[in-house]
Amino acid sequence: MSIRRLLLLMLFTVGLLMTVTTCVKSAEPRVVPVDAVPDPTVTPLPVTFPRDEGGHETRLEWWYHSGHLQSESGREFGFHFVVFKADDGLNEPNLVSQLGILDVETGEHYEFARAEAGMRQIGGGLMTIGIADWVYGLNPIEGAHTFISKSGDTGLSLNLEAVAPVMLHNKIGWLPTELGSTYYYSWPRQKAVGELILNGETFQVTGTGWFDHQWGDFFVLGKPAGWQWFAVQLHDGGSLMITQARGIDGEIVETYGTYMSPDGNVRDLREYTDGIELSVLGEWTSLDSGATYPSGWSLSIDSLSMELTIDPVAKDQEVQMGLPAASTYWEGKASVSGRQNGVQLAGDAYVELSGYADSEPVEWMQRR
Question: Distance between CA 326 and CA 355 in Å, rounded?
Fold first, then answer.
């Protein structure tokens, strides 16, 4: 393994131990032992519910929520809430949780984070954990989740319940990659109900959420490796996940996805990857991190007779708090328009752009 790859791995895994607020419990940084990239050809176990909604003894795991909310007066917001877990198998797991809120009316993006050493159970259900003063809960009912996250005069608390079937990616909910294997499924449509507090103003909100859960012995190396990920919720009831992954040399290694029709039928698009075309229409450069991200996309999927245009609702939806510079990413609300089988389409999306920020130089690793 090259020094660059090892450094990027260290930055991500050790970064999960960082203290991000004064009320955070944290552990001393430590390096995850690495012998080699895990064998991506291992035989996967069946994904079972509700058991696999909870935690697993794997190197990396995350529970990810995003979605689109409206207040009682019709004011629109986007949200992103995630819990990352890193586990070296030798010490207690370490958690980082991030919250992002977009105020569509003003275009302002807010972000907050918490971290904690260990999986601290604070309640019942399938899993209820505390990350500093935040709470994340998984109910025994499949696809039912809750979180409470507040920082000063801003925060979001939501109850989320699946209203569509589960989406197992790659048909079985497991993906082999050049950087290890990952289990991966989504609840592509959740009814969201809760309370948003923004700069001290309280809104009762409802809307639609998307949930992703991934776990496995895989690596996230950072630039130039990474991905463009799209969670599309069409107004006709269809749901679409598309990922374009880059390998350790920065080249595209695969573009794949999963589509759920309005009646709940799931189609694996990995069988039709030659017919998926994703083009970048523009770019945006962050004044904070210096990273340049794609911004605006056209997406064509031959097997679905679908052509979409995806536009960010706001340019600056970068997420930096709680992770090291190499793990900075863009996570943003977007609007969707297009056609399928000649019929006009519209919808909402959340887009994730990973592996575009340069890592900070480490003095003792610099050439002399």
Answer: 8
The hierarchical CATH code for the domain 3-28+50-359 is: 2.40.370.10
Quick one: 35 exposed, middle or buried, by C-beta within 10 A (0-12, 13-18, 19+)? exposed
d(CA 116, CA 85): 10
**CA separation, residue 183 to residues 63, 117, 176, 235, 326 (Å):** 12, 24, 9, 28, 24
Residue 311, exposed/middle/buried by CB under 10 A (0-12, 13-18, 19+)? middle
Tens of pLDDT, residue by residue over 45-70, are: 999 999 999 999 999 999 999 999 99
> Would you kindly state where each structural domain of the chain is located, as residue ranges?
3-28+50-359
pTM score of the predicted model: 0.88
Residue ranges for the chain with pLDDT beneath 70: 1-41, 359-368
Residue showing tokens 């080249």? 251
Would you call 255 exposed, middle or buried from its count of C-beta atoms within 10 A (0-12, 13-18, 19+)? buried
In 3-state terms the chain splits into helix, strand, coil percentages (rounded to 5) of 10, 50, 40
Provide Rg for the chain, Cα atoms.
Answer: 19
